[in-house]
Amino acid sequence: MKTAIIGAGGVGGYFGAKMAKAGCDVTFLARGKQASVLKKSGLTIKSIHGDFHVENLNVKESIKEIGEVDLIILCVKAWQVKEIRSELKSIMHNHNCIIPTQNGILAADELLEVIDRSNVFGGVCKIFSKVESPGVINHFGANPTLVFGELDGSVSKQSQDVKAFFDSAGVNSQISADIHADLWKKFIAICIGGLLAVSNTTYGELKELKETRQMMIELLNEIYILSQEVGINIEPDFVDNVVSNIDTFPPDSTASLTRDIWEGKPSEIYYQNGTVARLGEEYGVDTPINRFVFNCILPGELKARKTYGS
């Protein structure tokens, strides 16, 4: 199965390297220094599951150079999906598919505005990873897994074929029977990243202090209540399970959104706490903690987007 990895950062770099290591036909879309290093030296993965290196990679710097592929794994930031979706349409055909891995709950809907529904899966990525330096990906938490599924909840032959491909490539994956619920479950959990940013804490620091731990729980509960108003099927004890899971995180770990904000880069805040605030207003659910987080980050976000031209 010919595969294109759109965005060779912490997520795309890791999963693409796993496929390349298994001998799969994989093309990486990368730009700038990352593209230069991948072309010259390949990818180095530093992982809690074992380090490895892959080289002689097929690297392109524009989507139009990729050509015909069977599977597209979209690994750009959430706010970049709208920017490149028309270009992505140019490499879609009747029998290929795209799996978005963005944080938040909007990526598939944004793709559907220009790409046929038959080509689009819902997707959730589970991994803690980052670009340590150009050509070096650091996987430092979670068992890397791609969860994907048809948006109507069916299990199609195409999804089974993709699952078989992931199995052959040594990539952990799951076919979801309710991808919308899985998207919301991750969405609820990741919105803590904004709270980490405004409180200037790691997960360990946030959860240990009584006051910030309570804010974290209230933030999670707001989004869970919103999910029920939207009609998402999530179990009642989900927030308790999220908190218990966070208690197992490495104390010094942070979220990608947190790191982007601290570094003055454009972030996914509109797709995380910003989406909670917007949907809260739409569905009549009060979300004061999420609104506070979004409003605190917004001025810096606007400055970052002006600086980076985003």
Side by side, the strands of the main sheet go 5-2-1-6-7
CATH superfamily of the largest domain, called what?
Answer: NAD(P)-binding Rossmann-like Domain
Give the CATH class of the largest domain.
Answer: Alpha Beta
Shape: globular
Helical proportion, percent range = 40-55%
The description of the largest β-sheet is: 5 strands, parallel
Report mean pLDDT, rounded to a whole number.
96
The low-confidence parts are none
Task: Give the total of domains.
Answer: 2
Structure classification = alpha/beta
Please count the beta strands (DSSP E, at least 2 residues each): 10
- Which fold does the CATH topology of the largest domain refer to? Rossmann fold
Strand content: 15-25%
- CATH 2nd-level architecture of the largest domain: 3-Layer(aba) Sandwich
Note the gap between the termini.
34 Å
Succession of helices and strands:
EHEHEEEEHEHEEHEHHHHHHHH
List the helices and strands and how they pair.
Layout: E1 3-6, H1 10-21, E2 26-29, H2 32-41, E3 43-47, E4 52-54, E5 58-60, E6 71-74, H3 81-89, E7 97-100, H4 107-112, E8 122-133, E9 136-149, H5 157-168, E10 173-175, H6 179-190, H7 192-199, H8 203-208, H9 210-230, H10 238-246, H11 256-262, H12 273-283, H13 288-308
Parallel strand pairs: 1-2, 1-6, 2-5, 3-9, 6-7, 9-10
Antiparallel strand pairs: 3-4, 8-9
Helix pairs in contact: 7-11, 7-13, 9-12, 12-13
